[in-house]
Each structure stands twice: as structure tokens, then as C-alpha cells.
Amino acid sequence: MTAFQTLDLRPELLVGVDRLGWTEPTDIQQEALPPALSGLDVVGLARTGTGKTAVFGLALLNKLDVARRTPQALVLGPTRELAEQITVALRALAVGMPGVRVLRVTGGSPSRDQRAALEAGAHVVVGTPGRVLQQLELGRIDPAGLATLVLDEADRMLDMGFEEEVLAILERLPRERQTLLFSATWPPQMSELSGRIQNDPITVGSGDRVDPDLLRQSAVLCGWDERPDALCGVLREREPVPTLVFCETRAQCKEVTSLLQARGAAALALHGELEQRDRDEVLVRFRNGTARILVATNVAARGLDVEGIGLVVCYEISPDPAVHLHRVGRTARAEATGEAVTLVAGDGKELRRLAAVDQFLGSPLPRTQPGPADDGPLERWSSEWTTLVVFGGRRDKLRAGDVLGALTQAVGLEGAEVGKIVLGERRTWVAVRTEHARRAQEGLDGARIKKGKFRVRAVRRGAGPGESRPLPE
User: Fold this and answer.
1) What SS3 class is residue 60?
2) Residue 373 class from Cβ within 10 Å (0-12 exposed, 13-18 middle, 19+ buried)?
3) What secondary structure does DSSP assign to 312-351, as a single string?
4) CA angle 161, 88, 101 (to 5 degrees)
């Protein structure tokens, strides 16, 4: 018997838990699941990647009336990316509950499509505050039967200026409900929000924290003009691992990405100017190994959940120690080790920021100096994978197995030559070994996959989202 089987869960949910391979709850799950399943309000202090989605997912699914196809739970998150991740996770948990419908309502998708989906009925609505409020105001979401409200990454929602929308949504919801609030940090405004929307909540977890046994941190002291070479030196001294580089501005993000690409590294930028489709493609290429380095602004990275990040580099130290902690906490997760390096200019302003981080963490970060300037290539940080985009997805009834079968049977690739396959609503991304990319593209383009024929393009290293480049002969 697994620990999940000892909880007060309906048997259908245990099917999803079993398929996901879960046996022992994480710390936040052990603390938060019992009160959440009992119907109590909960404050969960937990960062992304700790298993908090399962807490509110199991709690809200456990009390659904499947026969009543009206919204019974509303989950709010700060970004479309996080909303998509939550939607996928809830559907996986509900696999043993036939008929349960989880609907994502976010910007970046045509409003008319969401209107039709809402009219068809849904048990759980997952969305971003702006679009959810819009649909409530238009009368397309009926809040009368909502029994559970979840605010995930609530501190990020406030940081992004969504407080007004969140409060406007709350005014339209039943007062008698369960409210589950999850946040990585607990600034004063979070305490105020909890007091306004929750009823005597149980507080569990500890939020962002650094385990010095798992996360190795250091600060590289350099001049402002030395940052590009210092960053390349950090990468050159380490073995290639999935790496996240944080920048303060979009312009800086673009400059750093161009620098790394010019030196041969497989790097992509993630910032607020990207359309949702392009953002999806960037994240897919990072997750499947086509890009080894993701250069992101802090706002763009909110809600980002990528497993296996081994290195975080802060190109510029944040003025807020809590933000610094949230950044470096993207590595050393799930008992894995990781490293975080912060580049610090040796001027008064940045040294004061570093001192604030030291005080916040309770001990000083080890200081180092940048290595010798070297404008040579970062060959080891290139990638052996190329991403193919198939212009068909879940709406075309495609499955990952269909694409894999076409590549292995029709094209003749070996299984080891095919990497991660990610299905979207209208597109599918598949990683293949670069030396076989041209053959794979030509073999799939216009070929029959399942019952349809789909256009296929390849995205080469260094191409931005939405761009394609000819493959070599």
C-alpha cells in the first residue's frame, strides 16, 4: 500500500496517482493534503517543483460531482505557461474519472474558441486573472457552483499587477467555498490577501529556501564591461547542463542571447515580447535539449517549471534578496544538486545588493574573480538535437506514439535517434539527432501520419522562435 492509499481519496483518483508512479508524498503534500482534503482553507508556502499542484489537484478533484457539468473549481495562475502546466497535470490526475473536463482559459487563444468550450461545459476552469475576469463579466463562466478556489504562485500574481483583477473575480464567487493559496514567498501583501479571502487557513510549508548541501552558490566579482566574458568563463569552466541565465531587462536578455549564439552555444531568449506560440516553442526546445541555455527575464520565467536545471546564472544581481532566492531556487530540486553563480559589479550599488543577499541567506556567498578573458567558441554548449515542428496536434487526434511510429517505420530512424515529443493543440514538436534531421523532415513532410498528412519544418540552432532555416545537405 502506498502512502497515497491511506488518504481519504476516491478510488478513481488513485488510478491517476498510480499511473504517474507516485508512491510517497513530497513534504508539501504530506503537510497540505490532509487539511485540503478535509475542506479547510490552506496556505501552502512552496516553490514550483515541490508537488504543490497535486495538493490542490487532488483536493478539488476529490469532491467533484462529475454528473454536474458546470464549473466547480477555479484555479488562477500568473502566466499562460503555468495555466497550461496545471491543466495538463489535472487531466493526468483525472485519467480514472471518465467525463471530467478541465478547461484552460487564458490570453493568447481566440476568445470565440473559449466561448464555445465554456458553453460545452467544464468541471474545472484553469486560467489567468485577466481572461477569467473577462469571461465572468460576459457571463460565460457561471460561478454559482464553485466550491474551490485556488491561487497558485499568488505572490507572482501580485508582483505582475493582477491584484485588482483577482479581487474583482473574488467579488463574483460564492462566499461559502474552500480557498487554497500557494506562494513561494510571504511578503506583507500576501498576508493581507490571505486575510481578505480565506477563513482561518492552515499554513504549511516553508516556501523558498536554500539547502547548502544541494545548492552550491558563488558570486563572481567583475566590472560591468567584463560581464559578457565572465558569463562565458563560467560556462567554459563547467560541463554542459540545462542552464538558466537571468537578466533584468528584455534588451539585456536579447544581447546576452546573441552573445552566446555568436560563440556557438545553443541558447534561446525568453522575454515578454514573445507571442504565446513562440514562447511555447522556446520552452519546448529548451526542455528537449535543442537549446542548452535559456536566457530569461524574471517576469517571463514566472511560472516556469523545467526539470533538471543544473546551473543558474544571475547576469545581474537583483535588488530584492527574495527574488534572488526565487531565481537560484530553480536548480537543486527534488533532492538533486545544482549550482548558482551571480555576476556582481564591483561598484557600491551592486556590492550593497550582495550584502543584502548575504544577510537574507544568513551567510556570505563565496566570492571569486573571473577567469582570463577569452572570446573563443563555446563548442561544448552546442546541441546534437534539432527540433522538427509537425503542423498538427491534439485537435487532429495525433498522439506521441503516432509521430514516433512514423519516424521509426516510415523514415527508418532508430528509437535512440528520436528525442522528446511534445503535443500541442495544433502543433507537435519532436527532437531528432541533427545528423538525421533532414531525412526526418523530408520523410515526414506531407507523409501520412495516422489518418492525415501534415506539413513539417525544422528549426535550427540559433533560429529564433517561429524561424526556420534550411537543413544542410
Assistant:
1) helix
2) exposed
3) EEESS--SSHHHHHHHHTTSS-TT--EEEEEEEESSHHHH
4) 100
Whether 96 shows a pLDDT value over 90: the answer reads: yes
Chain center to CA of 105: 17
Q: Say yes or no to pLDDT of 472 above 60.
A: no
Indicate whether 471 pLDDT > 50: no
CA distance 47 to 184: 5
First to last CA, the chain: 56
Question: Phi/psi at 76 (nearest 5 deg)?
Answer: -110, 135
Band of residue 304 on the pLDDT scale cut at 50, 70, 90? low
- Is the pLDDT at 360 greater than 60? The verdict is yes
Strands 428-433 and 418-423 turn out to be: antiparallel
Task: Between 178 and 394, name the one with better pLDDT.
Answer: 178
Domains of the chain are 3-205 (3.40.50.300), 215-380 (3.40.50.300), 384-459 (3.30.70.330)
Q: State residue 294's pLDDT score.
A: 96
